Amino acid sequence: MNFRDFTEIRESIKTGNLTLPELAHHYISNIDETNNDINAVVNYDRDEIIRQAESIQKKIEDDSAGRLAGMAIGIKDVICEKNKKATCASAILEDFESTYDATVIERLKKEGALLLGRLNMDEFAMGSSNENSIYGPAKNPHDPDKVPGGSSGGSAAAVAAEYCTAALGSDTGGSIRQPASYCGVVGLKPTYGRVSRHGLVAFASSFDCIGPLANSVADAATILEVLAGYDDHDNTSSSRAVPDYREAVSDPTSNIKIGVPEEYFGKGLDKEIRDGIQEQLKDLENEGAELVPIHLPHMKYGIAAYYILATAEASSNLARYDGIRYGHRADIDEVEQELHQEKMAIQEQMELATGDKKMELSKELETTDSALVRLYKKSRTEGFGQEVKRRIMLGTYVLSAGYYDAYYAKAQKVRRLIKQDFTQAFDDVDVIVSPTAPTTAFDIGSKMDDPVQMYLNDVYTISANLAGICGINLPAGKHSNGLPYGLQFMADTFEEEKLLNAARLVEQLHE
């Protein structure tokens, strides 16, 4: 069985050559055979999957099924599903079960999608390699010694390994597009506000987007059409009408204007990736596209601005995990015992001290943290991983008195300048092209001790999140090292039709 495209799957089911339960068994078999090595799927229920498949199959047969009937979709573990664990790959939410469905889950169910299971990720979506996870690192199906990218690494790996037809991921600074590049699949980040964030556990609320990863542009377009649209539960969601995204890929227009920014093809980009993308741009030009050199002067500040603003928002959003209402809680008896022992030790010292030393110890006793404060600290220390702690600390620092204006306020101004760069560029072009990542997938463990180098993997993707525009990764070819690499298109806000049109043109070059 070799069905990777939803159109093929749906046609085979309609003609009776395939049933959805058979397809479900195929995906389950693939997971059973290789997921111990790839570690993309972290939680799934075989019996429930088969029950879903049988129910949807009946609807297909009586012609009452929705647009996604026959599509098996994996869900990143940061998106809430009712009565399912939503751990965000973090110890602090290790036993948390969602009490409701995210809006995107409701819309998938309504249209007959088969929800296949929960997928690995970087903890709280903070990472570029899927190594920051309580489940252990996800691995790249093309080479298990390499990372799949992050933070939606499990989603990209699951699609590439044929554990599902498609997957949902989230993209805060490139977390759909970068792993899609590393794993050789399509990954779409919609315009901010195009898809509801209700039920997406927040990392950075002014950046986060939910989007699809799939094996074809048409599949990504089909899923986006279902997900998009206004939601009463999310005031940042747009009320704009949802276009027919599938129409945009059915007969793409070739005479488009493609902006080629000099900033994205310079130092730091792998030569083979640069040459491969430029060759495909020439092919598009031969088919009728116009290549327009453009300049995005403020892109060089993108990484710095992003990691100031995103960590500030993370610091605020993650303050809710205090071990009191839900999530991991430290042992209160241990906390109280430690506090008691500490106070007793200070009191013993006070009995032997005199003068200033005694007054100093008295003040120390008075200012000792209460059991409640210690419970907060211990719960968060135990619950959060190293990268999440790093970002909380950075975010708290840039928001603190004396540093807010120097860092956070200045980064917001830079964000505005980056947005203006794109707005001006889109006056002259339909889409902007760039590499998706500067290299192919790197070795597991090779960058864990160098966070700056890890962050630079997002150098080409974060600008779309800063500007709130849409972007997509297209598989662009294989490197001489045998690993896939990607090409990225970006389009203006709510111009997903132009984005998908351009993406389909590249896809046709490989058919």
UniProtKB/TrEMBL annotation:
Keyword ATP-binding among UniProt keywords: yes
The keyword Transport appears for this protein: no
Region span, Disordered: 132-153
InterPro entries, alphabetized: Amidase, Amidase_CS, Amidase_dom, AS_sf, GatA
Active site residues per record: K76, S151, S175
Any one GO cellular component localisation term in the record: glutamyl-tRNA(Gln) amidotransferase complex
Amidase domain span: 23-500
Keywords, in A-Z order: ATP-binding, Ligase, Nucleotide-binding, Protein biosynthesis, Transferase
Documented EC number(s): 6.3.5.7
Catalytically driven reaction(s): L-glutamyl-tRNA(Gln) + L-glutamine + ATP + H2O = L-glutaminyl-tRNA(Gln) + L-glutamate + ADP + phosphate + H(+)
GO MF term set: ATP binding; glutaminyl-tRNA synthase (glutamine-hydrolyzing) activity; transferase activity
BP GO annotations: translation
Enzyme class (EC, first level): ligase
Pfam families given in the database record: Amidase (PF01425)
Described function: Allows the formation of correctly charged Gln-tRNA(Gln) through the transamidation of misacylated Glu-tRNA(Gln) in organisms which lack glutaminyl-tRNA synthetase. The reaction takes place in the presence of glutamine and ATP through an activated gamma-phospho-Glu-tRNA(Gln).
Assembly with partners or alone: Heterotrimer of A, B and C subunits.
Protein family: Belongs to the amidase family. GatA subfamily.
Protein name in UniProt: Glutamyl-tRNA(Gln) amidotransferase subunit A
Organism for this UniProt entry: Halalkalibaculum roseum
